[in-house]
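Question thread 4412

I'm putting together a teaching handout and wanted feedback from people who do this every day. The idea is simple: show students a protein as raw sequence, then show them the structure tokens that encode its fold, then repeat with a second protein so they can compare. Below is the first pair exactly as I plan to print it.
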Amino acid sequence: MKKKKLLGINFLCGAVSILAFLVLWNIAVQGELGKMLPGPIPVLEKFFTSLVSGKIGQNTLVEHAFYSLLRVMAGYALGSVVGVILGLAMGTYKMVEAICSPLFRIIRPIPPIAWIPISIIWIGLGEDAKIFLIFLASFCYVTLNAWNGVKNVDQQLVGAARMLGARDHQIFITIILPACVPSIFAGLQVALSSSWATVLAAEMVRSSNGLGWVIIAGMNNNDMLQILVGIVAIGIVGLVLSIIFRKVEAVLCRWNKSGT
């Protein structure tokens, strides 16, 4: 009962903050700012019209979001799988860590957007270049968290298991891997946000669909209304992805407090 009440209060506070923002936005555009920036009512009208019936370019807003999500899921899944495997390997085996750690530490600080020119030269302007950028955006965060997860495992538990005769693969499956799950999920969530931001940047460079294309096309046409519709769609999709991920984490990590 207390938890439901807390959720209700959080929802109410969130709704009030959004409403207050819309009211302030509407007041702000009543003056000179209104000549450059449309108010919330026209933006929301355009947003809901473009969802299914009204098209921006050749697609509706839902279709643009779908294309962006397809690119994100492809690169994110690939980057997450490779990142988890490499992170666990680097944390478990000293030789792998010695070989991969220096190169990883060099690559990690480089923002995915910096790879756009190289991806165009190497791969071209097609979908593969966008997936490559998303792969880089998710790979580094997942690898780092999986690596740190192994490093933070309680060594007393590992030592006790060895004293009881547990083999290396048994220790990995029963102690190391479960202890790393919260850290891996934290990396996956950050990687998802980074992947979503990266695909939008990639679509702004070269694309014929997607939410990033909606914004850049609006800029080219000097259509501020379309730009804001694209921004609103980006924020809503990002919020939905975050909520879904937190729900999945809560189900899979019930035994861990960070998953609730």
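The second pair follows. I'd like the answer to focus on this one:
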Amino acid sequence: MVVKNSSSTFRWGAVTVLVLLGLVVATSLPGVVGVTGLRLGVPFAAMGPGPSFDVLGTTEDGQDVVEIDGAPVDQTDGQLRMLTVSVYTDLGLGDAVSMWLRGDRELVPLNSVIPANTSQEDVAEANKQAFINSESSATLAALNFLGIPLETVIAEVMEGAPAEGHFEVDDVITLVDGHPVTVPSNVSEYVASRAAGDEVTFTVRRHSEEVTIPVTLGEKDGKPYVGILMKADPSGDMTVQYRLSDIGGSSAGMMFALGVIDKLDPGDTTKGVNIAGTGTIDPDGTVGPIGGIKHKMTAAEEVGAQLFLAPADNCDEVVTKDPGSMTVAKVSSLQDAVDAIDAYAAGQPVTSCTATDE
């Protein structure tokens, strides 16, 4: 989702999740000034179709959106387009009326987009963690789908946290209190089972050396914590990186995972089809619902998508939107998504949302 106000642009992946990354300067919308000279603000935001990005393509500076090193990468003729929703905030009365009159914008309560009593620091931290989680889940889901082993890597050490001064970025966690670690949830679940003040011993691989790190757990929001951001990477020399740093959030997960599969799996997963889609992804490959799907369907139509992959849990909204010339496939898992692409490319029917899904 792209959230715009008079000075900033936030890119978010779902209405209900406070996620995504950076702030990009945006052009201010015209405001309404009353006779007192004060702007007449309204407690609404406007939503509409946002930009889309081909995860099999390149960024503006020529880097692969999904970059894989250390393993053979297949070429593809198709597209896998992740979608966003533009959300405009800091609206004046005139802005809100103008957005409503356009017909392609939807007015929603402001607090449904930006929760009350949320600081910018909280937003930035939530954005960063959510994007890293989305990347990690996409990598986990794709590599699990392909049967490729994984390892847990430190993505960031939080300032002022118990981990500061002990861990380094790119440390690979192999053990926690002697328990084997392969995926980040092995660490987070174990730490959650302990108490603040407990000492936990981590074993990490730093470059080619094994390092033992004792850490006394701190407390945050009433829970024990270490203060590290983790991601799942392929074990060995293969690395997976995502280059859309200004866009993130949980709704890009399924498309990122499909991008990894397409690049690593022999053959052309997309079969030359222009595919758009949206949905969260869990490490086990489960596809979850997102916000703003009708706007994302419009964005997909605008870029000529032939096949639209829709989370099954969003079907109640999907059936209220005319898909135009697109074929809409209902998916509950990564396997469903791959099967839908195969069926469409072969000229076979796909499982779609129906009125009975409402």
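Top answer:
Good format. For the second protein you could add a caption like this: DSSP finds seven helices and 21 strands in the chain. The two ends are 25 Å apart (CA to CA).
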